[in-house]
Amino acid sequence: MFFIFSKVLSFLMNLLLWVFVFLLVALFSKNVKRKRKFLITGIIVFYIFSNSVLINVISWCWDVRETNVPAGKKYTCAIVLGGFSSDDGNGGGFFNSSADRFIQGVRLQKTGQVSHLLISGGNGLLMPSGFREADWVRGQLREMQVPDSCILTEPKSRNTIENAAFSKALLQQHKLKGPYLLVTSAFHMRRSMMIFKKQGVDVVAYPCCFSSRRLSVSADDFLPNAGALAGWVTYIKEAIGYVVTRYFK
Q1: Quick check: is 70 in a domain?
Q2: Does pTM top 0.85 for this prediction?
Q3: Residue (of 92, 80, 99) closest to 131 by Cα position
Q4: Are 114 and 104 in contact (CB under 8 A)?
Q5: Which strand ranges, in their side-by-side order, compose the sheet holding 151-154?
Q6: pLDDT digits (tens, 9 = 90+) for 191-248
Q7: Residues 148, 240: one domain?
Q8: 3-state secondary structure of 128
Q9: Quick check: is 215 in a domain?
Q10: How many domains does the chain contain in total?
Q11: HSE-up of residue 23 (Cα within 13 Å, Cβ side)
């Protein structure tokens, strides 16, 4: 039920959808005052949430950008959260814009900072296909000559809560002791750390997929930008997920 609720909520959090609704009401409304009200509201909402200034500040305050990994320290496992590859519709997959999660996981294993990689990810679609991310990624790791003995895959999880629960069971099964490095996007790290620790998994943040490593503002940031609208969907989802998980799960 929580999984379905999260998918419906993600749909409703699409700010571009709300702007479209406001403008649609303005277009078809016969009441002049209502028409003007919804038109102005749509324009204001569009401008506020489509310029990059505010979303950059939110990103700066929310993202976990630093890692507390001591130089030379080695870990038994890096838990790499899925979401960095997608179904290609032909029985395979492809790396998407979050592929830095995969890159950093491989880098950690190749440099000897971790002995094992745990790839946690199934299929998070409401109506899933047969694609299972962790299974596809195992093949990619083999092509990069990462030994099978170093690879753990968890292909059942649909969200971060299941990532934590299934990863914990797999780590216990293979008798790998913590702490573990948790590899995920900077915007997703705050919620992920809380979820894993609530489930008793000793993790150290290893963020990646940074949107920025510094806070800056330029003249272009005040212009409407479709990417800013998409960013709001991400951060609203993260904030709601954080509050719900912390206080109600």
Answers
A1: no
A2: yes
A3: 92
A4: no
A5: 151-154, 114-120, 75-81, 180-185, 203-208
A6: 999 999 999 999 999 999 998 777 888 888 888 888 888 889 899 889 988 988 887 7
A7: no
A8: coil
A9: no
A10: 2
A11: 11
